[in-house]
Amino acid sequence: MFKISHYKARMYQECPKKYYYVYVAKRRELTKPHPYLVFGEILHTVLRDFFRFRSEIRNEETIKVLLNNYWRHYSPQAAGIVDEATMKEYYERAVKMLEEFTKTQNLNAQPVLTEKTLEMPLEKDLVLLGKVDRADEEPDGTLSVMDYKTGKYREEYAEADRLQLMTYALLVQYLLKKKVSKTAFLYLEENQLIQGTPTPESLDLTKATYQQIRQDIKRSEKTRTYHAYPGNFCPWCDYLPICKEAQAVGYKPGKAEEATEEI
Fold first, then answer.
1. Given 3.90.320.10, 3.20.20.70, 3.40.250.10, 3.40.50.1220, which CATH number is that of 112-212?
2. I need a surface site. Which of 18, 93, 152, 153 has the fewest CB within 10 A?
3. Nearest to 232 by CA among 199, 205, 259, 211
């Protein structure tokens, strides 16, 4: 059984060679912690647990207590940060994002699920999976799906992002047997909401997209060919030290500036 997620599919589309290192060769010894990933993980966990409290105690004080509880588990080194000053900058950003969240978002929402990994079959040997940040029940009985983003909105990633939301809509509908009428990305730093409306056609297209990507991966598996697509992501890739194709066009290990969550 082959399991595919938006993350896995997008990696293959952006660089089959990286997909090879991660999922085929499994060169996990080359991976290292990245500050923006740890930062995002903490904020997602805080928001997950925040909505598990009764609505009457969901406030700025509660969300800051949660943030402090999780933050203390990470040293700068564990988060991939080299100094306390940078760690402080990340913390202050997190506080600002969560303060804005409590001032502008509906804190009385009653999610039907938070931070849950879901699966659904697409074919007899293909399963779609993904972790949904939050799904709420709307007044009309339909569902809405929200995904939190700690980076900034980038128009060039809009198509891939739409696929991600449609993926979550598919998974939630399959699990809960209710229509998903709304989807949204909430960009926490900018307090920007990017909304969408799933349709039967867009959900069918989402299924077909994953089925096609699986066929492309099968061809790579059969021919044992995984091409590298050198580009802007290369300086931040953990596998740059062993990627001859990227190095051949000028990307060198150790030359990247510290990555941000925008990458």
1. 3.90.320.10
2. 152
3. 259
